[in-house]
Design goal:
helicase, six-stranded parallel sheet, 11% strand, Rossmann fold, 19 strands, CRISPR-associated helicase Cas3, alpha/beta, 4 domains, ATP-binding, Hypothetical protein af1432, single chain, 770 residues
Length: 770
């Protein structure tokens, strides 16, 4: 008799063999991911995890197309009843067997609260009747009668087995000695099972060295190309976790990839635009025009579909099968190098149901964290606590940044993180590139008179960075009256289609050093590879200021008489977006410390002086002694304590993802965009709703579903939830399958030049952080 594992008709034997194939691939590619005992236990887990599905109720459920049958208990509980405990005790210790048993029993999240011991025993007795018919030999399992009698008989000794290996009424907790082994074993079993069920490869088809390929790319362009001091240092320490500070333009990305070697790697960045930029750069330099990049490299963030489709279009490779497989492999962490946002990788810190798969993957991976100083206190806590867990289970990390605050180092040491620093903890600086910025501080709000004065003097270009979109728009309007189309703007309030065009335009404008002015916000700080001649900026705090300065004279020294960086600290008023309470773009206390630190700067500011400022201002002592900044470190510590206390909570994953959003936002479509594309939108929504109702699901139809969904996404912009859910701010809500498209009211204006303008219904406090 053939016992089914899936409603598709796949049998238990065939499904288990698919798991074993992926287990073999994983072991071949990453042999050090587990020790010998671990690989053996994982093989046993794969072979036994679904055997409980041979019970009559489960088989009837599949054959009858039902979701549940009365009296059925989770098949995993029946699977562990078949484990050969006598044999296992000869090979493994009690902690290993307990971890194995729990990893199988809990490999699906199921509710055991209503299962009684008598019900459980009865179902075990019933499944015993099926065992004589099951072809165990096809899975390399021996089941002679004497062996079965011992194994099942031992299981029926309820007190012994429950106390030693499994308790129906209890879950393992982080305080149990076998917990760590269980996390890894269950995590690997889940990953292998997901890959087998999804029909995709568990890992990239081999391992490559991205840095070697990038070196070849540069060598082909310049035969004299060699790795620099930083890049040589990282590869010398590729067996360690490392932390380093390096000047902009020193090749931090290449240095980190040299450290990563041919290992499985996760590259975490704070902004999606930065992720897209690094993805494009690595893909171009490591693969050229070859399609193989899709086998090894992926991006990962919540709405990555637009970028993925663009990638497939470039490869002339857009079809439903390739697209779905690529997205699934990315989400299941199957690629060798994944470039991602923090929420996609570090969500495991909340120990949600199923977090073990992510931890198991990270246990044999390398994790690169770029610009750690850009994260809020809560997100910084997630990173520090997450790195502690990664290191505990065997993974390694690389923190690379242009500036590293001493208080962050203190927090990492306090949590016991182990890592290597460069000799004497010195940053990597380019001595030939140390006169980039001549700085003038103004103790009042940003004004356009100085901008116009500089604009009229020379033929170069000017970058203005504001803390909020609202302020950027005010500056744009004022400048437009004087210079018209020579002023441009980029920020986060453009629809996706226009944002992409803006990013291309500003990079071309910068590369060609055209005359004109661009105005932006924080999106410029760590995402766009641009190099302007003059920078005007509001003060946010030191880290943000130095990131913004890195977009002016990026890879060249400055020798002019005039200043090329103008900083406005607000004077008696705060710059836009800065508040002592409520919503604020940066912590008010960190802004105040920064304002005091730069008060007397007038002239050239070297790279050493920038780092000295960070080292002298952002110390644990000074922050704690500050009346306005002393809660910053406490917020980080309290968040870490909260995460540690909830290690056994197993909360819902969706709740976890929401916690990672400092400002929860919703994708919305501006009214004017909706009106100008109404007919096309209507047709595509009608088509998609037919699809979701089950009509015409041909292959071509699926291709169109992806294209049309992407089309709608390209017309939306992220808007903070607190703004959207004011009733007067919504024109209409259109249902598309399981999602809703919110059309903003006419009170919001939208244009390609300015983006989404604020509604009159939004109060002053909200508008000042938008």
């Amino acid at each position: 008799m053939e016992y089914l594992a899936k409603s598709s008709g796949e049998t238990i034997v065939d499904h288990t063999k698919e798991l074993l194939k992926r287990l073999a691939i994983l072991k071949k590619l990453y042999p050090n991911a587990l020790k010998n005992d671990g690989w053996r236990l994982l093989e046993i887990a794969c072979k036994y995890h679904d055997l409980g599905k041979m019970n009559r109720k489960f088989q009837s459920k599949l054959l009858e197309g039902k979701s549940k049958i009365e009296g059925e208990i989770p098949h995993a509980l029946l699977s562990i009843s078949m484990l050969p405990f006598d044999e296992l005790e000869e090979e493994f210790d009690d902690e290993q067997i307990r971890a194995l048993t729990y990893s199988i029993a809990l490999h699906h999240a199921r509710d055991f609260s209503e299962i009684t011991e008598s019900n459980y025993d009865n179902e075990i007795e019933l499944v015993r009747k099926e065992e004589d018919k099951f072809p165990f030999y096809l899975l390399g399992l021996k089941r002679d009668s004497e062996f079965e009698k011992k194994a099942v008989g031992r299981f029926y000794e309820r007190i012994i087995v429950q106390n030693e290996y499994f308790d129906l009424d209890a879950r393992l907790s982080s305080s149990d000695p076998e917990y760590d082994y269980f996390v890894i074993l269950k995590g690997f079993l889940n990953r292998i099972d997901y890959a087998a069920s999804g029909g995709y490869d568990i890992e990239s088809p081999g391992r490559i060295n991205f840095a070697d390929r990038i070196k070849k790319y540069h060598k082909d362009k310049n035969d004299d190309f060699e790795w620099n001091e930083l890049q040589k240092w990282t590869v010398e320490h590729n067996d360690d976790s490392i932390v380093f500070v390096a000047q902009t333009g020193m090749g931090k990305t290449e240095a980190a990839l040299r450290w990563a070697g041919n290992n499985k790697t996760f590259f975490v960045l704070p902004l999606r635009s930065a992720i897209n930029a690094i993805f494009d750069r690595v893909r171009t330099q490591a693969f050229g025009s070859k399609d193989e990049s899709n086998e090894y490299l992926s991006i990962l963030y919540s709405d990555m579909s637009n970028k993925v489709i663009d990638n497939f279009r470039e490869k002339n490779n857009v079809n439903i099968t390739n697209y779905k497989e690529y997205v699934e492999r990315s989400r299941q962490l199957s690629q060798q190098l994944t470039i991602s946002t923090i929420d996609q990788i570090f969500s495991f810190v909340y120990h949600y149901q199923g977090f073990e798969a992510k931890v198991a993957t990270l246990s044999y991976s390398k994790v690169i964290v770029d610009e750690i100083q850009m994260y809020s206190p809560n997100l910084l806590a997630y990173i520090i606590y997450g790195l502690k867990i990664i290191q505990k289970y065997g993974g390694k990390f690389c923190i690379m940044t242009a500036t590293l605050a001493p208080f962050i180092v203190d927090l990492m040491k306090e949590k016991g993180l182990k890592y290597k620093l460069p000799e004497k903890e010195k940053p990597f600086l380019d001595k030939k590139l140390n006169r980039r910025h001549k700085v003038k501080i103004f103790h009042y709000e940003l004004d356009i008179d100085k901008v116009m004065e500089i604009y009229r003097k020379f033929d170069g270009n000017i970058l203005i960075v504001c803390n909020t979109v609202n302020k950027a728009m005010q500056v744009y309007d004022a400048l437009f009256e004087h210079i018209g189309n020579d002023v441009h703007m980029i920020h986060s309030r453009f629809i996706a289609r226009d944002r992409k065009k803006k990013e291309i335009e500003i990079q071309k404008f910068s590369n060609d050093h055209l005359k004109g002015i661009w105005i932006g916000t924080q999106v410029i700080e760590a995402s766009l590879d641009i190099d302007f001649d003059v920078l005007f900026t509001e003060l946010s705090e030191l880290n943000g200021l130095f990131q913004r300065m890195g977009r002016c004279y990026r890879r060249r020294n400055y020798v002019g008489d005039e200043y090329n960086v103008y900083v406005y600290d607000g004077g008696e008023k705060n710059p836009s977006g800065i508040h002592g309470g409520g919503r604020t773009v940066v912590h008010y206390g960190m802004y105040k410390l920064s304002k005091n630190a730069i008060n007397n700067i007038d002239g050239y500011l070297s790279e050493e002086e920038k780092i000295d400022l960070i080292n002298n201002v952002y110390t644990t002592k000074k922050i704690k002694e500050s009346d306005v900044a002393n809660d910053y470190i406490e917020e980080v510590k309290n968040t870490i304590s909260y995460l540690e206390s909830g290690a056994d909570d197993a909360i819902d994953r969706r709740s976890v993802m929401k916690k990672f959003r400092d400002i929860d936002s919703i994708q919305c479509m501006p009214y004017s965009v909706y009106e100008s594309n109404r007919m096309s939108i209507k047709d595509k929504i009608s088509f998609l709703n037919d699809y979701y109702k089950g009509k015409n699901k041909s292959k071509d139809y699926l291709d169109k579903k992806i294209e049309y969904s992407n089309y709608l996404d390209q017309l939306t912009v992220a808007v903070p939830t607190y703004i959207v859910y004011e009733v007067e701010n919504i024109y209409k809500v259109i249902e598309v399958g399981k999602r809703n498209i919110i059309i903003l009211s006419k009170g919001f204006n939208y244009s390609f030049d300015k983006g989404l303008s604020l509604s009159k219904n939004i109060d002053d406090e909200d508008s000042n952080v938008w």
